[in-house]
Amino acid sequence: MSEQGLTERVADALDALGLEELTENYRDRQREAEDALVETFDPLPEYLAETPAVAEVNRVNTHDDGGDVVVPVVPVLFDPPGEPPRDRVWDVVGRVLEAVHPAFGDIHVRHYDVQFAYADADEQRAVYRRVTVHPPLVEQFLSTGDLRALRAAVAEGDDGDDGVPPVNFKQFDAESMAASGVYTGGAAVAAAAAASSSGAAAACAGGAGAAGGAAGGC
Prior knowledge:
Number of helices: 8
Radius of gyration: 16 Å
Largest sheet: 6 strands, mixed
Order of helices and strands: HHEEHEEEHHEHHH
């Protein structure tokens, strides 16, 4: 595996695609969240190709008080092919939110975007899905520890618009977003898969550390 962390490799892949680096003002918070993710996912579960990392902190608006409104993006790469069990997905979501929210809890977060990549069962293509959760649901989950209630609230609140949180493990075309060369908020997971050095999703995305290979194939 490359000595670079996943975040640095994703940044290199996004740069190679001509997409703007958007995380500069939040490096300290990003590092704090990533340290927590390393601790949370140590030892690394066998079903993950790499430790999840905060790939981007996207500034999406300006708050009335003049502060940034941001969306932290966390790509998660599943190792085995086939759609992961939904309980496993939500276990990962819960652990990611527990690790990441403390680093961003005192600034304006529109939502947390947990993006997933895995190879389909035939290992013919990479599949990309996302779960997005806005802070009130995150804070309720963290105060109660009730992952089942969080999962139910996201399912109930998903109105079918994948641009409005919450979003309940909805599939999206991350490779087209990455290949477009225009920032759309969905390129991070394709770049992460392309930049990864292991896992079936990486093979389907032209991975093994190939920056800019997000539109590859198995």
